[in-house]
Design a protein that fits this description.
With 587 residues, the protein is α/β, with parallel strands linked by helices. The chain folds into three domains: 240 residues, Glutamine Phosphoribosylpyrophosphate, subunit 1, domain 1 (4-Layer Sandwich); 172 residues, Glucose-6-phosphate isomerase like protein, domain 1 (Rossmann fold); 147 residues, Glucose-6-phosphate isomerase like protein, domain 1 (Rossmann fold, 3-Layer(aba) Sandwich). Helix content is 35%, strand content 23%. The chain is globular. The protein starts with a strand and ends in an 18-residue tail after the last helix. 53% of the residues are buried. It binds fructose -6-phosphate. The site of fructose -6-phosphate has 14 residues, from α9 and α15.
């Protein structure tokens, strides 16, 4: 999603802003721009493409001045064009803005402004905000009242940084992230700690419905009524320093490779939190679990396991669907949310709906400074370190481990699972990528991949197809094995590859039946299993497990590796798949 950044301090702003934007690239974007103030004049450069590319063409980092703002845009209103890229200038040229989020009433506001004689260059909702700011500044003549008046007119969800021609910066947070970095002689505003982590690890996490004014290095934080609010400076976790690729070719490969360690770190040292959550679940009448994308696939696993092992029913709801089925939520229930970023707008909206029904919120989340943690009653951290690759990898396996730990607590001694065995099984797959690399070469030209699994392996099939789609752009579909003959079998022919998730457990023989049905229609079979079979055209061996709960993780790893290598074969960028963003902060 869009990243915003602001800088005010004793150094030249533009190079610092460009570096910050580069570090936030993982969030996903299509265009970039920077504006700076020097001698009471605003200068601006922007264009379509990656930061590096645009910078080498138009030298964003050569802009003068010690105050500036920058942006990477992920298009929502209007096409990907230079004109639609941020920053946007007000008609007078005296105010510039960078914005993340969506203004729902922008058409109505635009019409009013046009009636007042304002002219719009772009198709964006953001240009409406900057002209509204100009109109209000001309009325109020001070920054504080301008902001208060402007936000009272906006509907939607947004954070933005605005720069005035005298070098004053202001930034607003309304249901989108905004963080202040406090350096020695400088201040940073950013949607992400990575925007300034090279310069300072002192941060202020601005509360929702607050805004900040930075004027000649003086900082004021206010609520939407204009009252000063108290703030705390937090030391940003040093683990953000891990957000480097190191010797790995891509973040995605680094993050896949970290999993022998991250599965051991998931839920580490938080026995009390896990016990509190388990006790709450035991005493709750109705439990719902929600998430988006990969995190939703983890929720599907939770549903099966909680019922099987703890006899606890939980209902899964896709976060983006909850608004249309809010009636399923009984008042005074519990909603478990799973989210890596803690910033997915759909998940936050689901929480909002559940809170209106007086539900308690339990969150399994990686970013402990996210909006979701602030909205939750109980939090369990995934503890897998920053995940930069857009496709979720290590966060998924950490989510599963945390669910296992909660189950372990719920069932006490019945649920013996060896986390070291899981970690070891991951290492075995990681140490032997050669065969998978060969299969990747075969897959690169196919147009369709079907992934079959039964029981607990069906959500893994869903996750596998999501990973393949994102990283390789090949159409991939997860299918519960038994459903094959109810429709998808019609699609099977010699052009198709089918991945069969087939560990030697209670699902094995039924899944073999599905594999035979596919094979006899000419499709090529990739078996992921601890048991060899002649049916497989390609066999990806996974270690035999002493506990069947090792399998969901050990079968996920080869799929992640396969997706990564197919991406390399197809020369797509595994870290930044097209059209996608890491934190989906819009609905
Ligand atoms: C898939 C992927 C997305 C996310 C989804 C939820 O690889 O990355 O599907 O899983 O956008 O994100 P979080 O977990 O941050 O709420």
């Amino acid at each position: 999603m869009c990243s915003i950044i602001g800088y005010s301090g004793s150094d030249i702003a533009a190079p610092i802003i460009v570096k910050g934007l580069k570090r936030m690239e993982y969030r996903g974007y299509d265009s970039v721009g920077v504006a700076t103030e020097s001698d009471n004049k605003i200068e601006l450069k922007k264009g379509v493409g990656k930061v590096q590319q645009v910078n080498s063409t138009i030298q964003l980092d050569a802009l003068c001045g010690k105050v500036g703002i920058g942006h990477t845009r992920w298009a929502t209103h209007g096409n990907v064009t230079d004109v639609n890229a941020h920053p946007h200038l007000s008609n007078s040229g005296k105010i510039a803005i960078v914005h993340n989020g969506i203004i729902e009433n922008f058409e109505e506001l635009k019409k009013q402004l046009e009636d007042d004689g304002y002219i719009f260059k772009s198709e964006t909702d953001s240009e409406v905000i900057v002209n509204l700011l100009q109109r209000n500044y001309e009325i109020t003549t001070n920054v504080k009242d301008t902001i208060i008046k402007t936000i009272s007119e906006l509907k939607g969800r947004y954070s933005f940084v605005v720069m005035f021609e005298d070098g004053t910066l202001a930034a607003v947070r309304y249901r989108e992230p905004l963080i202040i970095g406090i350096g020695k002689n400088n201040h940073f505003l950013s949607s992400d700690v990575l925007g300034f982590i090279e310069y300072t690890d002192d941060a202020i996490y601005i509360d929702n419905e607050n805004f900040v004014i930075i004027d000649k290095n003086q900082i004021q934080i206010l609520d939407f009524n204009g009252d000063t609010v108290k703030y705390e400076i937090t030391k940003v976790s040093k683990e953000f320093a891990d957000a480097y690729k190191g010797d790995y070719a891509h973040y995605t490969l680094k993050e896949i490779s970290e999993q022998p360690d991250t599965v051991l770190r998931a839920g580490e040292n938080i026995k009390n939190a896990i016990k509190t959550v388990a006790d709450h679940i035991k005493s709750s009448n109705n439990i719902y679990i929600t998430g988006s994308g990969t995190s939703y696939n983890a929720a599907l696993i939770a549903k099966q396991l909680f019922l099987k092992y703890a006899k606890i029913k939980i209902e899964t709801i896709i976060s983006s669907e909850l608004q249309f089925s809010s009636y399923v939520i009984e008042p005074n229930s519990t909603l478990i949310t799973i989210s890596q970023s803690g910033e997915s707008a759909d998940v936050l909206d689901a929480v909002h709906i559940a809170k209106q029904k007086n539900c308690k919120i339990i969150s399994i989340v990686n970013s402990l400074t996210s909006s979701l943690t602030r909205e939750s009653n109980m939090i369990i951290g995934m503890n897998c370190g920053p995940e930069i690759g857009v496709a979720a990898t290590k966060s998924f396996t950490s989510q599963i481990i945390i669910l296992y730990k909660i189950l372990d607590e719920l069932t006490k001694d019945d649920f013996n699972i060896d986390f070291n065995e899981i970690s070891h099984s991951i290492s075995i797959s990681l140490d032997n990528p050669e065969k998978i690399k060969q299969i990747a070469k075969k897959l690169k030209d196919t147009s369709d991949i079907y992934v079959l699994g039964r029981g607990i392996h069906y959500p893994i099939a869903m996750e596998a197809s999501l990973k393949l789609k994102e990283l390789t752009y090949i159409h991939a579909e997860g299918i519960p094995g038994g459903e094959l003959k109810h429709g998808p079998l019609a699609l099977m022919d010699s052009n198709v590859f089918a991945i069969i998730i087939n560990p030697d457990d209670s699902t094995y023989s039924d899944t073999m039946t599905s594999a035979r049905e596919i094979k006899s229609r000419g499709a090529k079979i990739i078996g992921i299993s601890d048991k060899r079979s002649d049916l497989y055209d390609y066999w990806i061996e996974i270690p035999k497990a002493t506990n069947e709960l090792t399998y969901p993780i050990s079968e996920t790893i080869p799929i992640q590796i396969l997706s990564y290598y197919v991406a390399l074969e197809k020369k797509t960028d595994p870290d930044y798949p097209r059209n996608l963003a890491k934190s989906v902060t819009v609905k």
